[in-house]
Amino acid sequence: MKAHHTFRSIEREKLEIIASLLQQAGYRITRITPRQGELTFKATRDGVHSGEDEQARVGQLVEHFNIESWSVTFT
Questions:
Q1: pLDDT in tens, 4-60
Q2: Per-residue DSSP letters for 1-66?
Q3: Which of these, 16, 25, 35, 39, is most buried using a 10 Å CB contact count?
Q4: pTM, 2 dp
Q5: Which contacts of 33-37 are long-range, i.e. CB under 8 A and separated by 24 or more positions?
Q6: Fold of the 3-74 domain
Q7: Residue ranges of the domains in the chain?
């Protein structure tokens, strides 16, 4: 299974930190871009075995850095 995460925030520094941490963990990261008054980037990871575990792992980062918007889909 593949996980596709989308992160949105008005604070570039938070997104840069999360993107760096996820990249070190093996996620593919898109460039941080402005969209509708916010900044956004996407992170993708192949080989996800459990959607719940994936959401819990990334959700901890989102909560810690107080990210305004985060969504995840699985394919």
A1: 999 999 999 999 999 999 999 999 999 999 988 999 999 999 999 999 999 999 999
A2: --EEEEEEES-HHHHHHHHHHHHHTT-EEPPPEEETTEEEEEEEES----HHHHHHHHHHHHHHHT
A3: 39
A4: 0.93
A5: 35/8, 37/10
A6: Alpha-Beta Plaits (3.30.70)
A7: 3-74
| Cα radius of gyration rounded to whole Å, the chain | 11
The answer to whether 8 touches 70, Cβ cutoff 8 Å, is: yes
Residue 73's SS3 state is: strand
The tokens 């996620």 sit on which residue?
Answer: 27
Three-point CA angle 13, 37, 4, nearest 5°: 65
The gap from C-alpha 61 to its chain's centroid, in whole angstroms, comes to 9
Instruction: Tell me which H or E stretch contains 71.
Output: strand 69-74
Residue with tokens 């080989």: 47
